[in-house]
Amino acid sequence: MIMNSATGVLEQRFHPGPGAKPAAILEDHPTQSATAIDGWRSALFGIPFLAVGVFVSLVAHGFLSGRKHAPDWVIGVLGAMFFFGGLFFLIHGLLGAGRKSRYLSAAVQRPSQPWLYDFHWSQEGIAFSAFNAMLGRLLAALLWTGCLIPSFWIGLNVRGAWLFLIVASFSALLGLVFWYRWAQLLADLLRYGNSFLSYDGFPYFLGGTLGARLRALHHVSDINVLTLTLRCVQERYVTSGSGSNRSTRVVCYELYKDTTTLTRERLASFAGGAIPFEFRLPVDQPTTSLASTPPVYWEIEARGQSDKASYAAYFLVPVYKTS
Question: String of b and e for 286-313 (b: at least 16 CB within 10 Å)?
Answer without folding.
Answer: bbbbbbbbbbbbbbbbbbbebeebbbbb
